[in-house]
């Protein structure tokens, strides 16, 4: 492990255009459960499977049931950035990290101080009226009874990508450009099974692909460096350079 951490630290010193691609595992250390972990949302018992509840068609047909689950299991208003979030913000401040590309919707990277954050699946902090497009923050949604409603009477929808919805083309193009131009790509806290987001790392053409995850991924054989362990502990160790 020490040798791998030394290698990672050396590469960070050598590089000036690092990109980080992260998944749910980055936020589990902040107390936000991973959908696919044993203790995650998939292990909870509901009338419908989570994949069904957080789909576009379910939101349209059963908005009250959608919001009951969404408020209960998708919102963690007391969560705070962990060591991984803070380490990435430090690397950006040092001019090493160009962008964070995240599958998470919790906004913790921005809370930690990161400036260039591409949110592939949206954010719980942005909510819009489906009728007049008026903006509402997370606090408004949390405090609303049942279905959050706009002052115009329209239903409010979180700016998150639900099942059956496509990713934002502009964000995808920007993410691809960052990854293509990166001299180092660090992938952390993701099992790399959620597509099309996971396919983005295939655009990397460099020779410093680093995978940091507690469990093996399908891309391990393609990586130049694989570190098994806590994403927070690893990044905190090397972020000081």
UniProtKB/TrEMBL annotation:
The active site is at residue 121. One of its GO terms (molecular function) is NAD+ binding. It catalyses: N(6)-acetyl-L-lysyl-[protein] + NAD(+) + H2O = 2''-O-acetyl-ADP-D-ribose + nicotinamide + L-lysyl-[protein]. Keywords: Cytoplasm, Metal-binding, NAD, Transferase, Zinc. Signal peptide: none annotated. Its main location: cytoplasm. It is found in: Cytoplasm. It is an enzyme of class 2 (transferase). The keyword GTP-binding does not apply. It holds the Pfam family SIR2. Nicotinamide binds at residues 35, 105-106. Zn(2+) binds at residues 129, 132, 150, 152. NAD(+) binds at residues 24, 28, 35-36, 103, 105-106, 121, 190-191, 213, 231. NAD-dependent protein deacetylase which modulates the activities of several enzymes which are inactive in their acetylated form. Belongs to the sirtuin family. Class U subfamily. HAMAP family: Sirtuin_ClassU (MF_01968). This is NAD-dependent protein deacetylase. It comes from Clostridium porci.
